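Troubleshooting: if your tokenizer reports a length mismatch, compare against these two reference records.
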Amino acid sequence: QVQLVESGGGLVQAGGSLRLSCAASGSTFSINAFGWYRQAPGKQRELVALITSGGSTNYADSVKGRFTISRDNGKNMVYLQMNSLKPEDTAVYYCNDAPWKVYGREGVYWGQGTQVSVSS
């Protein structure tokens, strides 16, 4: 199993900002696409942002323009800058490989995640 450690979550008022960090293990990190996911109570886990090894990014419509994903291959780190937060962003946030390596696969490892709570 890989090791994934998320941090940086917390409680913030609507309109505030947080920066999440993900420390990922694996010698092939620099050539892998990586993403941030989130899961709220009663909802399925969803992909929020994706970044390729070359730095191309994609975002869910619900967060586009507010969230920014970035990576530091030398440190095996992935970040998520979250601005203009809304109560609807409240969820546990996880980092992991790209959806094509996560969805539909058995034995996928998920880290502990980090809780983001946004008050109105």
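Reference record two:
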Amino acid sequence: QVQLVESGGGLVQAGGFLRLSCAASGRAFSRYAMGWFRQAPGKEREFVATISASGRITDYGASVKGRFTISRDNAKNTVYLRMNSLNPEDTAVYYCSAGPITSSGGSSYNYWGQGTQVTVSS
């Protein structure tokens, strides 16, 4: 059982950066792959990034590749999403998730956080 709480969202101007954090409760955190997804109003949930339990494997959605970086600190039970060069298309609620494998599919994840709002102004 894992509980996830996102933080770090907010309002930022285009071209700026944010770092989102996802704090997990539970001893099994280091055994889970982690993912970030986002959803904007009226749009489908979109894969952003995933990282393996060890942190050695990462993958990114095409729209964020080269701009976003996912990382984790298993000693702190925390996963991060560093977002650079933000643009208004990145505006969405960002969700942290945990599951058994690295995957771009939301159905692969068992646990989800409540989300944190990221708004990028033009």
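Descriptive notes for reference record two:
- The radius of gyration is 13 Å.
- The chain has a mean pLDDT of 96.
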